[in-house]
Amino acid sequence: MPDAAIWAIIKKQSVAAAATVTITGVKGSILVSSGRVRIGTSRDPVGAPIFYRDVPLMPSATEKGSSSRWRKMPSH
User: Residues near 40 by Cβ (< 8 Å), separated by ≥ 6?
Assistant: First the structure.
């Protein structure tokens, strides 16, 4: 999760055009995963908390599965 300063930059720069956010996973100094998402921010206020569903990826053969859960978006 980005800190408040980074999130403010993403929100500001994704109003006129979508921002591409790249997320990388590292273990020590080794890159183990990478993903990209395009985010657009509306100029219109929401006026209410935003909830989203946190759905885990398919567990590997060595991990037990877990159920999804609903989370409230942080209000930075």
Answer: 14, 15, 17, 18, 19
Q: Is residue 50 a contact partner of residue 42, using CB atoms and an 8 Å limit?
A: no
50 vs 17: CA distance, rounded Å: 22
Distance, CA of 50 to CA of 72 (rounded, Å): 6
Find where tokens 């990826």 sit.
Answer: 57
* pLDDT tens for each residue of 20-45: 989 899 999 999 999 999 989 988 88
The conformation of residue 6, written as its DSSP 8-state character, comes to: H
Give the integer Cα–Cα distance in Å for 33 and 26.
Answer: 7
Measured on CA atoms in the order 9, 20, 69, 25, is the torsion positive or negative? negative
